[in-house]
Structure formats: C-alpha cells, structure tokens
Design goal:
- With about 200 residues, this protein is mainly alpha-helical.
- It is built from seven helices and no strands.
- It is elongated.
- It starts with 20 loop residues before the first helix and ends in a 31-residue tail after the last helix.
Length: about 200
C-alpha cells in the first residue's frame, strides 16, 4: 500500500546512532547547513544540551560530555565544521562491532554429560587410588546421574551411569553397584507461569 506523505523507517536513511532519533539527526543536518562557523558552533552547543537532557542519568559518568561530542561527530559524519571542545578522532570506535568470539568445537561422545565431565574422566584416568579419587568418583557419578535424569526427562539408571563411568575412563574406574550409594535426586519443580488477570 502506498500512501502519499507516509513513509516507513525502513525506507529512510539508516541512523548511525538510532537512540537519538531522527529529530536530532535533522538538527545536525541543519547545523551543517548554516553559513557561518559561529552559527554552527552555537547550534552544535544547543544540540549537545538537548542530547544531554535525553539521558540525564548519565551525567555523573566520567567523560560524559566528551562522549556526547563524539556522538555529534558521528551523527555529522565528521562534516560539521566547528571548534570541537574535545578530540573526536576516536569516535569511530563507538560504532565498531567487536570481533565474534570463537566457539569451542570440542567433540564429546555424548552431549548430556557435557565437556567438563569429560575433562574429569581424563583426570580420573591418571589419578592414583585413594580417598581423593574415591571422593571425585562419588561426586562425578552423582553428577552424571543428575545430568542423565535431566536429559531423559526423569529416568536415570544406576547401571547406565556405572557403565558410562567405566567406558569413558577406559576401564580405570569400576564402581561396585552393590556397595555404591547414589545420592537421592531431588526433582526440580516445573516453573508455573502466572497468568495475568483478564479485565
């Protein structure tokens, strides 16, 4: 549908700093069109005052004024010919996007135990027998059972945990099913969303 005089933001020029809106951008464009430097300077100071009123909660922040002038430089695409009270050459960093973080693509045989659990399996393979290893085995087995319980929607087989422990530690850890005591799993209560009252 095409209505004369009606346009959408998607059809307009993309804003560099959308938080200031199109009206501030229009003011900046007006400031750039003024013939004398004195007029442009006065207009720029007024725009900064308006920008400051838009976010008064940031006034106490360090370098707040400097940031506003950086924003003005960006909004004018560095084309506003005035005496800048701050060095705005680094303003471009504000809009620079950070490099994407690398995602660790470690292969693990089964996802429900998680990467950290497989690091513990590796540790258990080399640990000498003793109280410390026994305690780590106990904690690990109970965590495995908890993970299994969560992933399988309420079923966690003791034999499966013991079998997996032996398998993923290359047979180094053998748990006796007759003597080993698993902790009781506390099922998590499902979150109940409260419905708003209808009027």
């Amino acid at each position: 549908m095409n209505i004369e005089g009606l346009d959408y933001n998607t059809q307009r020029e993309k804003l560099v700093l959308p938080e200031y809106g199109r009206e501030i951008k229009k003011m900046v464009d007006h400031a750039m069109s003024l013939p004398t430097k004195e007029e442009r300077q006065r207009c720029a100071n007024t725009i900064i005052d308006i920008m400051e009123r838009m976010v008064p909660q940031n006034r106490d922040n360090q370098d707040y004024k400097h940031k506003l002038w950086d924003h003005l430089a960006l909004l004018s695409n560095y084309q506003l010919d005035i005496d800048w009270p701050y060095d705005v050459s680094g303003a471009q960093q504000i809009t620079a996007k950070p490099e994407p973080l690398g995602y660790p693509m470690t292969h693990i045989p089964v996802r429900h135990y998680g990467k950290m659990m497989f690091e513990i399996f590796e540790k258990l393979k080399t640990m000498p027998a003793g109280e410390e290893r026994d305690e780590l085995v106990r904690v690990t087995a109970n965590q495995m059972k908890q993970n299994l319980y969560q992933w399988s929607h309420g079923s966690a087989d003791d034999e499966k945990v013991i079998s997996d422990m032996a398998r993923f530690t290359d047979g180094k850890i053998q748990i006796d099913i007759d003597t080993f005591k698993f902790d009781k799993i506390q099922p998590r209560e499902p979150e109940v969303k409260k419905k708003g009252k209808r009027r």
